[in-house]
């Protein structure tokens, strides 16, 4: 595909995204049907579509409309590329620009310029304070690719050397002693020998820093209450030997965890709701709750354009319920760690305040926040210690 044909394909995908179809589903369907497209084309179209989603509002303003074509036009203007070089009307590229399109488009207002979802601007401003502008600016660009070195199988130096033999260049990242930032061939990671042998996992550096902050030393029984695919379960197991139980309301989400654990050389047991109810309490329960995902909007930008006020309110209710259920599984003297990848106070400190008012047996031990300004995604983590008796 020519660069112009990739742009036209991205425009058609963006039209479907605008109509409400999930971006990932649109791209998967296109990739399945596009027999003429090679892997580089697929990657390029994917990158273009997600780049525009990250700059949803500024692209619409600069392009003078909300169609895929207008947004692509605005996106190209926004990154300083001349759209006329791609909108040539040749081959499978987009039709040449009409006079109205050339004249259309205006500088975005300050909120659109930072591509902040209007419905959450107030929350984000209040939560981030002086960091609002620089954080929103970072969320307009792609996330770096980070790896977590699996200390059960390799040191960070070993992992770096193994990756380098496959042309994957990395540098250590200061956010965590296990974090590597990929500086060359990030797309080769998932197919690499180092990955197949369990030396590394793909995991954001702040997510690793969050696990570093958990008081795992001395714990014997650990429950990951919202384990999902088990990213944090495996990060904990890579650092500290203990009995790890993984639970999630969705069995489908947990499903890849056992194969991942085997590759990592870690021992993790899945626990459904009934099994969990029969388990004695744990020394440490991690509740990595579902959230707005606002801290990870550059990695998963879909949430930025889809999150509604009603979704958000439902998430707050879910987070409270999860905190209560997870607290029930903490042994006297043990720890409840509540975490989100949200930048918003309502999901973070405010939830903890509500929890502490309901559960006087717990006291706040530490609170940590990471934003994309630290290099990785935005995360919140708090350690709540249950009284000894
Ligand atoms: C932020 S994700 C977890 C990510 C995971 N810890 C990781 O590091 O890869 C939140 C998870 O919470 C799960 N979840 C939602 N409601 C839940 C509930 N009531 N009980 C347990 N898990 C729940 C979701 O299915 C989702 O997998």
Q: What kind of sheet is the major sheet?
A: 7 strands, mixed
Give the tally of structural domains.
3
- Indicate the CATH class of the largest domain: Alpha Beta
Mean pLDDT: 97
Could you characterize what this model shows?
The protein is an alpha/beta fold and 389 residues long. The chain folds into 3 domains: 3-109, no CATH class; 146-203, 2-Layer Sandwich (Alpha-Beta Plaits); 206-386, Vaccinia Virus protein VP39 (Rossmann fold), CATH 3.40.50.150. It contains 19 helices and 11 strands. It has helices at residues 3-18, 23-33, 39-54, 56-63, 68-78, 99-103, 110-113, 121-128, 132-138, 156-164, 193-196, 205-212, 231-239, 251-254, 257-264, 273-277, 302-306, 309-327, 349-358; strands at residues 146-149, 169-172, 179-184, 200-202, 221-224, 243-246, 268-270, 282-288, 330-340, 362-370, 379-386. Strands 7-6-5-8-9-11-10 form a 7-stranded mixed beta sheet, sandwiched between helices. A 4-stranded antiparallel beta sheet has the order 2-3-1-4, with helices on one face. A hairpin with a 6-residue loop joins strand 2 (169-172) and strand 3 (179-184). Helix 4 crosses helix 5 (68-78). The radius of gyration is 23 Å and the shape is globular. The model has no long low-confidence stretch (mean pLDDT 97). The site of S-adenosylmethionine has 15 residues, from helix 13 and helix 18. S-adenosyl-L-methionine binds at residues 248, 288. Belongs to the class I-like SAM-binding methyltransferase superfamily. RsmB/NOP family. The active site is at 341 (nucleophile).
